């Protein structure tokens, strides 16, 4: 990039030299038109630099957002409906699991089954929604310590 900018600066310097040469050949009566022409070229150069910087900044922001999404930090967050659906599905599946646990292991089996159901819902809540178990602050702290690459 730096070489490209130096080449454009050299090109702009040549344009200035040509404008000054033309002014000395044509006289003061064309000075206004020559200056306006040169300033148009400077404006075009500034516009291209600003456009390039804005595109670079937007690309960096999009890249950061994509990395955050891949690391489990969704941009817009998950909807209430998705969380509710997961909870309802886990409770519906809890009915046959409870029956199987009671038949095979009695009350201790029922207790273990429900501990598992609650644990699955807690982990889902923490991982997907920046909850208390695996929330954003916890991930950022591990990332800062270098223990976890997020």
Written as H for each helix and E for each strand, in order along the chain, the element string is: HHHH
Structural class: mainly alpha
Mean pLDDT: 78
What is the total tally of β strands? 0
Low-pLDDT regions: 135-139, 141-150
Estimate percent helicity: over 70%
Shape: rod-shaped
Report, as a whole number of angstroms, the end-to-end distance.
32 Å
Radius of gyration: 32 Å
Q: Tally the helices.
A: 4
Specify the biggest β-sheet: none
Strand content: under 5%
Describe the structure.
This protein has 150 residues and is mainly alpha-helical. The protein is built from 4 helices and no strands. It has helices spanning 2-26, 31-70, 80-129, 136-145. Helix 1 runs antiparallel to helix 2. The radius of gyration is 32 Å and the shape is rod-shaped. The two termini are 32 Å apart. The model is unreliable at 135-139 and 141-150 (pLDDT under 50).
Question: How is this structure best summarized?
Answer:
This protein has helices at residues 2-26, 31-70, 80-129, 136-145.
């Amino acid at each position: 990039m730096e070489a490209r900018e130096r080449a454009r600066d050299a090109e702009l310097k040549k344009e200035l030299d040509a404008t000054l040469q033309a002014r000395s050949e044509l006289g003061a009566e064309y000075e206004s038109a020559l200056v306006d022409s040169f300033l148009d070229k400077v404006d075009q150069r500034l516009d291209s630099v600003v456009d390039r910087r804005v595109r670079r900044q937007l690309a960096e922001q999009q890249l950061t957002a994509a990395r955050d999404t891949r690391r489990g930090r969704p941009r817009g967050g998950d909807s209430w409906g998705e969380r509710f659906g997961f909870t309802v599905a886990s409770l519906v599946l809890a009915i046959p699991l409870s029956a199987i646990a009671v038949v095979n292991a009695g009350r201790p089996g029922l207790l273990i089954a429900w501990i598992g159901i609650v644990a699955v819902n807690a982990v889902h809540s923490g991982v997907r929604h920046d909850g208390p178990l695996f929330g954003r602050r916890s991930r950022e702290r591990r990332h800062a310590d270098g223990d976890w690459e997020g």
